[in-house]
Amino acid sequence: MAELLTGNALVGQSGGCTAVINCSLAGVVQEAARHAAIGRVFGMAYGIQGALAGRLLDLGGEDPTIIQALCGTPAAALGTCRYRLQPDDPARAVALCQRHDVRYFFYIGGNDSADTSHRIALAAEAAGYPLRVIGIPKTIDNDLPITDHCPGYGSIARFVAEATLDAGRDTEANRYVDPIKIMEVMGRNAGWVAAACALGKRSDEDAPHLVYFPERPLSVPRFLDDVKAAYDRLGFAVIVITETMRDERGQPLAEEGATVADAFGHSRLVGAANRLVNLIQDRLGLRARYDKPGTIQRSLMAAASPVDLEEAYLVGQMAVRYAVAGEHDQMVTLVREPGPAYRCRTDLAPLAAIANQEKKLPADFINDAGNGVTDAFRAYALPLLGPPLPTYPRLTRAVEDGGHEPQISADERR
Amino acid sequence: MAELLTGNALVGQSGGCTAVINCSLAGVVQEAARHAAIGRVFGMAYGIQGALAGRLLDLGGEDPTIIQALCGTPAAALGTCRYRLQPDDPARAVALCQRHDVRYFFYIGGNDSADTSHRIALAAEAAGYPLRVIGIPKTIDNDLPITDHCPGYGSIARFVAEATLDAGRDTEANRYVDPIKIMEVMGRNAGWVAAACALGKRSDEDAPHLVYFPERPLSVPRFLDDVKAAYDRLGFAVIVITETMRDERGQPLAEEGATVADAFGHSRLVGAANRLVNLIQDRLGLRARYDKPGTIQRSLMAAASPVDLEEAYLVGQMAVRYAVAGEHDQMVTLVREPGPAYRCRTDLAPLAAIANQEKKLPADFINDAGNGVTDAFRAYALPLLGPPLPTYPRLTRAVEDGGHEPQISADERR
Questions:
Q1: Which of B74, B278, B294 has the CB atom closest to A292's CB atom?
Q2: Contacts A281 to B, Cβ<8 Å
Q3: Å from A42 to nearest chain B CA?
Q4: Which letter, b or e, does each residue of B78-100 get, where b requires 16 or more Cβ atoms within 10 Å of its Cβ?
Q5: CA atoms within a 13 Å half-sphere pointing along the CA-CB vector of B164
Q6: Which of residues 187-246 of A touch B (CB under 8 A)?
Q7: Contact yes or no for B138/B15 (Cβ under 8 A)
């Protein structure tokens, strides 16, 4: 048993928001109240960047009903930042902790935040100031190493799976008007979110029909061939890409040909999906649209995964228990238990092993053609989404003298 | 009591999809089964366009569990079309009905579909063929006259209200990274969907902070002044526009300066939000992003309104009852009962009075500045969304030595 360290706690949120990151915050605050070693609980407003500018909140003194309500509140109630520590910052952060008698430092975030936490841990050691630093995983990108998955991923996965399935039915019904749909989702350098778009698919007609991953550069001719083949087979097609896709020359699709002046702006950056829609219309002569759920995909509470909400709370709660028990310079991880039923427990991994690492989609989660997912991915991801995704029927009974494809020409369309 | 007319029924879906249009279809099929006057129930595959091409489905012979499951299935299970009737088409549609002994014709759609139905009603009368034609309202645009509102609107309204509120919290938390968000929603020539984005807003901090409507041309200098003022006041801003917005010269924002050649496409159409994001970055020097939920906003079952689902079923069911009772060349309408509690009953309006009409957002639903909604709009719309929208807390307790705005300069951002 480690020495009992008595003092205050400080907790911050960093990086992109998720639907469940506030559950982790509630887990920290509520668990901290159960430990006599922890006095006050401070929050960093806008992450380490705000904290270094003197912006703290008194979370321990907050109305408990507000803390409880955080479990159903999206985004980051403390505010967040994307800030790369400057050389003096780790020592400044330790000095901040000393001024406020902070002995427990919790930082909820992804790879970059693990780096921030690790550097502060090292600075505290260098200063001879006992400080227990624990990272709490959070990223919709699901790209942290060691942990089985990241809180935040299950909820964005549920949203994009439902959105792709539901909007796919829209494209299917509307095939003689707008037969091609591109869904542009998040994911930085990893295809975890794109892959999740396929989790509601149960038949060839179900969307998506093609999924592309940032792990594989997009060959434009190959892409067009794929789209044409799907359209020829089904009469419509739903295609998933990430906003960060690059072509075979390594150029981002979103930036190619940017900053052309137009009538009232100076630049004309266009997104990846927008460019591919134009390309499909020009090269294949097919009407195409795109959906770009943007920050909605990582925020919408109506589609949050109950499993994700629960695990996000758990990692916050366990961070406090690990720290009080003497752990330091570690991140909480989720470990999937073997067996047919999905269960996770927590463990720890050194922050140094998490910092700035990216876990890409494994090769066996991507199909051979590089445009879809495998059953191994489905088995990995589906339990994270909570209750089964909806299934939708299709009408089956063509009338005897009907049933042939109507000959609908483009010029008949309104 | 009208003469009892005995024969088969034909039902179709037309125009843009919604989350609830299949409820109306289920309402027709299930109610038709209760009336001895109605024999078989046929469905048009892909609307009148598919029906005229000989594509019919046997809905009355379909597995009843599939018909029931339509109530939870988004989009249009029959398929839909956007087709302007050619001169011969009304007579061809009547001939189709004669071939299949169809005496009851139901068409679920919006303004254009009412025109289609009305023209077929006139053609049946001209041919001396007794046919009872009833329109069933459906449009997320909510722009049909006479009816209090349109099935489909409550669900898209619930989605965009939740999405704006939730993604607004994301922007608020992330204000030092991407302080400006534009939400680009649907709505053709009317601002009903844009207005609905404001239905979750309860405080000045809650999104949206600015809402623009296609009823009012967008003055770009005025828009930039509004955005700057909101940002100066709050430190971030969420702005709603429709994809169809036009500027003061009447030019669509989405098409201005289009068809510039780029590296691999011939055209570079960019959407309205994409252009405004570039403009805000260029003119105000503020990082901006946009969300374009596209067809997700009209499809996502996870955000459907229970009130909308119920009313969509009701209008389908009542269409059958009205037709069997002898009504013809009418559309079912929803009539809001007076009184404090929300209740709707159905009535009828002549198809000719609906066809090709558009109900714009009334002036008293738009604030004086033209950039927000009024309490009158909230009172009108909120009951259509079903259960109360979520409320989210904000943390309140700044620590005594903190609480000032951190001085975060742009070059500190990662």
A1: B294
A2: 267
A3: 8
A4: bbbbbbebeeebbebbbebbeeb
A5: 34
A6: 220
A7: yes
Comparing CA positions, the residue from B363, B221, B257, B173 lying closest to residue A270 is B257
The Cα of A388 is separated from the nearest Cα of chain B by a number of Å equal to: 13
Q: What share of chain B is helix, strand, coil (3-state, %, to 5)?
A: 35, 20, 45
Say if the Cβ atoms of A166 and B292 lie within 8 Å: no
Rounded Cα–Cα distance for residues B184 and A291 (Å): 10
**Least CB-CB distance to A170: which of B17, B393, B414?**
B17
Q: Domains in chain B, ordered, with CATH?
A: 7-152+302-354 (3.40.50.450), 153-300+362-385 (3.40.50.460)
Q: Which of A141, A143, A206, A291 is catalytic?
A: A141
Distance CA A25, CA A43 (A): 9
Q: Tokens representing B254?
A: 């989405």
Contacts of B398 in chain A (CB under 8 A): 45, 55-58
Query: What are the tens digits of pLDDT across the range A180-200?
Result: 999 999 998 999 999 999 999
Beta bridge partners of B41: B9
The H-or-E segment that residue B132 falls in is strand B132-137
Cβ within 8 Å of residue A306, ≥6 positions away: A386, A387
Pick from B73, B166, B176, B247 the residue to mutate for testing the A interface (most A CBs within 10 Å): B166
Query: What is the distance between the alpha carbons of residues B161 and B174, in angstroms, rounded to a whole number?
Result: 20
Q: Are A109 and A140 in contact (CB under 8 A)?
A: no
Task: For chain B, positions 300-339, list CB contacts with chain A under 8 A.
Answer: 300-303
What are the tens digits of pLDDT across the range A246-274?
999 988 888 654 444 444 444 557 789 98
A178 strand-pairing partners? none
Task: Mark whether B225 is an active-site residue.
Answer: no
pLDDT in tens, chain B (414 residues): 577 899 999 999 999 999 999 999 999 999 999 999 999 999 999 999 999 999 999 999 999 999 999 999 999 999 999 999 999 999 999 999 999 999 999 999 999 999 999 999 999 999 999 999 999 999 999 999 999 999 999 999 999 999 999 999 999 999 999 999 999 999 989 999 999 999 999 999 999 999 999 999 999 999 999 999 999 999 999 999 999 999 999 888 886 544 444 444 445 577 899 889 989 999 999 999 999 999 999 999 999 999 999 999 999 999 999 999 999 999 999 999 999 999 999 999 999 999 989 999 999 999 999 999 999 999 999 999 999 999 999 998 999 654 444 455 444 444
Q: Which amino acid is at B229?
A: A
- Supply the angle between the helices A21-32 and A306-324 in degrees, to the nearest 10: 40
Test the B interface: residue of A67, A140, A292, A394 with most B CBs within 10 Å: A292
What Rg value do the Cα atoms of chain B yield, rounded?
24
Name the A residues in 80-99 with CB < 8 Å from any B CB. 80-84, 86
| Distance in angstroms (rounded) separating the CA atoms of residues B284 and B273 | 16
Which segments of B129-268 does DSSP mark as H helices, in order?
153-173, 192-196, 220-234
The one-character DSSP state at B177 is T
The closest CB to that of B173, out of A17, A393, A407, belongs to: A17
The answer to whether residue B264 neighbours chain A at the CB level (below 8 Å) is yes
Nearest CA-CA partner of B231 in B271, B285, B278: B285
**Are the C-beta atoms of A107 and A124 separated by less than 8 Å?**
no
Distance CA B305, CA B266 (A): 42
Look up the ipTM and state it. 0.95
Residue A278 CA, chain-centre distance (Å), reads 28
Distance from CA of A46 to the nearest CA of B (A): 7
| B411 in A contact zone (CB under 8 Å) | no
Query: What pTM value is reported for the model?
Result: 0.95
Q: Please, which residues bridge with residue B252 across strands?
A: B246
